[in-house]
Design brief:
With 285 residues, this protein is mainly alpha-helical. It is 51% helix and 0% strand. It comes from Toxocara canis (Canine roundworm).
């Protein structure tokens, strides 16, 4: 495709070639590719501060331009952790709370991608810490998911969100709080931090599932142990809107270590006839 040499150079992180093209074809900063992105989008991911500033200055009107996903350069800087690019954009007036087509904000993306430094910058500049996406989930909900992020960084992200006013009991469209997300994800460190920050450990979602239901249904034994130790014992036999207990989910979904833990903690094996016999088998394993 003609006119996209600059984009290709930036996409390949070739700053020498980028500088050469900017000298001979500066008009390419306004060219769009098949994803409706301009050079500034790619620069937000790969460029150093000097190169990024040079591209932005060639056409400042592109500061908040969107690609076909609704991503602006600031959103991409948040995803990639290009803090210097994000700072330049914010200094030049970029929309700090712009949302993409799924209503994800720069704060959402910095959290999801584990970009602590960029997140800290956004929060210092006044970004909305409690923006909700199209599922009603706020950044703190996503901070309970730590699969691809080092645990220490994940904890730092969660703590800086709480320090900056994140709603510890905020609810998504299914009325699930960060504590319920943490229980489902088995993130015990996040759970302890949320409880310490005032999170409601007895919260239920629209199906009346509590944290024990969530942990048991996903097989998170250590999470169950933490919750049993920190909650009133009456929660062990709490029922959802279908009358099902955490033990029912543990048994029917094959999470037998969780079932054993619940039984040893006093769960009623006779609550539901369908799993009573199996419960007695589990307790003697």
């Amino acid at each position: 495709m003609s006119g996209l040499s600059l984009i290709r150079a930036l996409d390949g992180s070739d700053m020498n070639e980028t500088a050469r093209i900017l000298e001979i074809s500066p008009e390419e900063v306004s060219s769009r590719d098949g994803e409706d992105r301009v050079a500034l989008h790619y620069a937000a991911e790969t460029a150093d501060a000097e190169t990024f500033k040079r591209i932005l200055e060639l056409d400042p009107s592109l500061i908040d331009c969107q690609d076909h996903n609704g991503y602006t350069p600031l959103l991409i800087a948040a995803m990639s952790g290009n803090t210097s690019a994000a700072e330049i954009l914010l200094e030049r007036g970029a929309q700090i709370n712009h949302i993409d087509k799924d209503k994800h904000s720069p704060v959402h993306w910095a959290v999801v991608c584990g970009q602590f430094d960029t997140l800290a910058l956004l929060l210092r500049k006044g970004a909305n810490v409690n923006a909700s996406d199209n599922q009603g989930a706020q950044p703190l909900h996503y901070a309970t998911i730590s699969e691809d992020i080092p645990q220490e960084r994940n904890e730092a992200i969660l703590h800086i969100l709480l320090k900056n006013g994140a709603s510890v009991n905020g609810k998504d469209i299914d009325e699930r709080t960060p504590i319920l997300w943490a229980a489902s994800n088995g993130n015990t460190e996040a759970m302890m931090s949320l409880i310490q920050a005032g999170g409601d450990r007895y919260a239920i979602d629209r199906d009346q599932l509590n944290a024990l239901h969530c942990a048991a249904s996903h097989g998170h034994e250590h999470m169950l142990e933490l919750l049993i130790e920190s909650c009133d014992k009456s929660i062990i036999d709490a029922t959802d809107r279908n009358g099902d207990t955490p033990l029912f989910y543990a048994v029917t979904l094959g999470h037998f270590e969780c079932a054993r833990l619940l039984l040893l903690s006093g769960a009623n094996a006779n609550h539901q006839v369908s799993c009573t016999r199996l419960c007695f088998a589990i307790i003697w394993l």
